[in-house]
């Protein structure tokens, strides 16, 4: 028995070493500015989970799920541990970011970005959306994306209330003039709606990043309701969210930027994709899971629930899903996440850094140095 346990232990250790050290990409050249920016910031990071409940809005019924009178939001918050102390107001308020996960994902789907941003002095929060997360009742329900901008606003309300609560860990900690959103896939769509939707947007949002988020149903009128810094990160070989229909229209948005990563997979943007780096293209798994869920849905025109033509939302047939055959070989997800992290961090630093010189340097890095140093990265802008 002891021998068996020893063998099992050895196998577990070997698998752990394999997952940790094998099939890793070459590190960035230390002489590059990108290598320096990829390093974590100076602050140790802490996090905690909390469950919040919005009793003012329901969770809609679907399938065998009868619905609920409220929306339960399991939330994780990352923060710089040396800047925030229980019972002591923060010396300076910090910028706040909210990450929105993709369809059939979880609040930890962007953990690699959240931890990096917290180390740089940001507060980052992410929640399991009640009906689109992996463990949603009955099955994840894509139609509920229309309610997710309201979840973003609810979470903002809570975090800002903590900011004014004496003795709270976040007392005095949130800078209401530096609030950003970022999200992946359906979370990217949620981010875009919370930033721009004529009816559903939150006016407290100051900047937004959509990572491979669907936008095919949004017109120029949709974005014209308000102006704010906006970045789309996308890939031409994305098998789930068509690049031409969803990413390229970003260039019609005044002041927006489109950062393209050559060879990036859709699934590779998610935190867990680092465990799929032995695959030729992790979108094989992403496609299988998403298609199986969407095909079981009776809501063929769910995007019509998002808005009306007067709001800049035009009913359109969604672009083809997962029709690339065979899937092209994609880049190592770890490298893909490095590049995504560089883009997200430099974008928000360009908007929210306190020193004008740091903001200017971050914008210059994002728009000039990053594409010059990293062959897979290109950037286009609408300067109108």
Automatic annotation (TrEMBL):
InterPro entries: AB_hydrolase_fold, PET_hydrolase/cutinase-like. Keywords: Hydrolase, Lipid degradation, Lipid metabolism. Residues 39-267 form the PET hydrolase/cutinase-like domain. Gene3D superfamilies: alpha/beta hydrolase (3.40.50.1820). Pfam families: PETase. Transmembrane segments: none annotated. GO terms for biological process: lipid catabolic process. The keyword Lipid metabolism applies. GO terms for molecular function: 1-alkyl-2-acetylglycerophosphocholine esterase activity. PANTHER family: PLATELET-ACTIVATING FACTOR ACETYLHYDROLASE (PTHR10272:SF0). This is Putative dienelactone hydrolase. It comes from Litorivivens lipolytica.
């Amino acid at each position: 028995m002891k021998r068996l346990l020893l063998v099992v232990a050895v196998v577990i250790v070997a698998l752990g070493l394999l997952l940790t050290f094998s099939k890793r990409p070459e590190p960035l050249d230390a002489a590059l500015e990108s290598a320096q920016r990829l390093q974590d910031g100076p602050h140790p990071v802490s996090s905690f989970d909390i469950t919040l409940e919005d009793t003012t809005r329901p969770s809609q019924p679907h399938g065998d799920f009868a619905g609920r009178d409220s929306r339960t939001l399991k939330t994780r918050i990352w923060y710089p541990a040396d800047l925030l102390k229980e019972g002591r107001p923060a010396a300076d308020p910090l910028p706040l970011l909210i990450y929105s996960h993709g369809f059939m994902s979880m609040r930890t789907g962007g953990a690699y970005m959240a931890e990096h941003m917290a180390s740089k002095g940001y507060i980052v929060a992410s929640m399991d959306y009640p009906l689109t997360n992996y463990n949603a009742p009955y099955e994840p329900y894509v139609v509920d994306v229309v309610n997710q901008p309201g979840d973003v606003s609810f979470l903002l309300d809570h975090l800002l209330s903590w900011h004014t609560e004496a003795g709270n860990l976040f007392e005095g900690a949130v800078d209401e003039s530096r609030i950003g959103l970022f999200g992946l896939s359906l979370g990217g769509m949620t981010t875009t709606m919370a930033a721009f939707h004529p009816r559903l947007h939150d006016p407290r949002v100051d900047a937004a990043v959509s990572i491979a988020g669907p936008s095919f149903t949004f017109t120029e009128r949709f974005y014209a309701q308000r102006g704010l810094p906006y970045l789309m990160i996308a890939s031409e070989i994305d098998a789930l969210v068509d690049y031409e229909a969803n990413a390229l229209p970003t260039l019609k948005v005044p002041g927006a930027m489109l950062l393209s990563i050559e060879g990036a997979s859709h699934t590779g943007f998610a935190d867990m994709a680092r465990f799929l780096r032995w695959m030729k293209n992790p979108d094989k798994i992403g496609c299988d899971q998403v298609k199986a869920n969407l095909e079981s849905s009776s809501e063929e025109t769910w995007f019509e629930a998002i808005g009306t033509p007067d709001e800049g939302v035009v009913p359109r047939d969604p672009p083809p899903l997962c029709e690339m055959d065979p899937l092209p070989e994609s880049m190592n997800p770890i490298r893909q996440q490095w590049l995504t992290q560089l883009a997200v961090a430099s974008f928000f630093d360009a908007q929210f850094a306190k020193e004008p010189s740091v903001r200017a340097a971050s914008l210059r890095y994002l728009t000039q140095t990053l594409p010059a140093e990293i062959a897979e990265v290109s950037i286009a802008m609408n300067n109108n």
